[in-house]
Design goal:
Strand order of the largest sheet: 1-4-3-2
Domain VOC: 65-186
Mean pLDDT: 89
Largest sheet: 4 strands, mixed
Number of strands: 8
Organism: Rhodanobacter geophilus
Low-confidence stretches: none
Structural class: alpha/beta
Keywords: Antibiotic resistance
Number of helices: 5
Family: Belongs to the bleomycin resistance protein family.
Protein name: Bleomycin resistance protein
Amino acid sequence: MRNHLDAKLMAKQLRQRLAEKSIELGHGECLELVAAQFGYADWNMLAARIALTRQRDADGETGIRFKAAAPILRIYSRDKAREFYLDYLGFHLDWADAPLTADAGPATLYTQISRDRLVIHLSEHHGDGSPGTACWITMKGIDAFHAELAAKEYPNMRPGIEPMPPRLRVMEVIDPFGNRLRFGEFTSRPIREDGSPV
């Protein structure tokens, strides 16, 4: 059975079959039709998916494996970090090399927090991260997460969910130190600028 890796061959065969019926379409037009059959907005999106699949296959043959990255975000207040990341966003404190409280003394903090499979490191160390860093976080359940945050009484943040056609919805939150966390969920069907399905 054919899959998305056979898209170019499928487009070539489609063009040939249509030509037999005196219907002339260019190769590019046939690629676009095949991409639509697989549910992609256009050929460029499908081509990117094919390239990603081939790279993953190649890495599998060489044994190269990468685990999830953990961004290091710079913080300046342990109390504000705890209030934002633990109380508001619902992360858990995994470990810390100093207490996550302001009255803990002069030790510089480096800590790991997590929620589900998302891991973030928070650091007071000079040179770790830069204020205003942006992190992209792919997720599922963005509506439920948005509702969870909206139900909390955190005075400094009221994020919304923004549609980003063709297949993405994004909610951005900004921590007290200017770091931006962009939570994105891909949609199963293409969407319009207003977020409605195409």
